[in-house]
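Observation: inputs received (chain + NAP).
Thought: call the complex predictor directly.
Action: predict_structure
Action Input:
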Amino acid sequence: MEEKRIINIFSNSSSISKETRNVLKQKLEKCGFVVPRHFDPAAELIVCVGGDGSFLKTLHRYEFPDIPFVGVNTGHLGFFQELYPDQLDEFIFKYKQGEYEVQDLKTVEASVTVGEKECAKVGLNEIVIKGARSQLVHLNMSIGDSFIERFSGDGILVATSAGSTAYNYALGGSIVDPRLNLLQITPISPMNTTAYRSFTSSVLLPSGLTVNIYPENEDDRGMLVVVDGMEQRFSSIDKVTVDIGPNIVRLLRMENYDFWTKVKSKFL
Ligand code: NAP
Ligand code: MN
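Observation:
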């Protein structure tokens, strides 16, 4: 008996996304693929219908599965999303022929230590550490074994290459080609006065160098750790350790995909 070829399809709740999901499901089933109602870990592909936000949410919900993703853009920007709803037939044809490439995206991981407890986080775009209230925060930061600075400002963002075009870019950080395996540390509203001194530009780190951030919690107003836009509140964080993550996100790209062409089409 021939093996079943399973494809998971997820969509956000907009009517165009739901409609696109149904159309794609029918088209795939006609070609002999099985499209289960719920997430099936045996699937060979995950299709995500929505914008970048819904792609990120799907990724987190299924804990960074080792299955390739392809996105159908019904959202606003669609930086991760490779297809539009009018390209479904063309996509299925090319997918069956193996006419696509797989883009490997690195992740960022953080380990948040509070007393004896440790909490692990993984992100595709970035990890942000910032104050829970609109007041200055002080974050002591070391890179590798060296103490670097006592940062004063709103917070610190650590972006992957894939995430460099998101929040990082809005903060004045650099756009990084995702083929580069690095982390970008970007300050969020750094203070630079005779009272407080912080780096005002991003710094880039190679893989293998660990960043440690030690918040000062004098009157403990609480800190937020925000991963790909999803926040969790902590109080009295002792340390946040940030590294390149263990997970790789695999995105299907069609043959004419080019990162810089995509950047140009979305930003200029
Ligand atoms: P959102 O607040 O609804 O929108 C953030 C915007 O960023 C959307 O237009 C989204 O695309 C786009 N985006 C997401 N990842 C991107 C990437 N890697 N490259 C370029 N653009 C990207 O939040 P969301 O849609 O759930 O996305 C979460 C991301 O929002 C976070 O990871 C963070 O990077 C970003 N964010 C940005 C700011 C800022 O720029 N000031 C502030 C907070 C968060 P779609 O329209 O296709 O969804
Ligand atoms: Mn969005």
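Thought: report the result.
Final Answer: The pocket of manganese (II) ion (ligand 2) is lined by residues 51-53, 75 (CB under 6 Å). The two ends are 51 Å apart (CA to CA).
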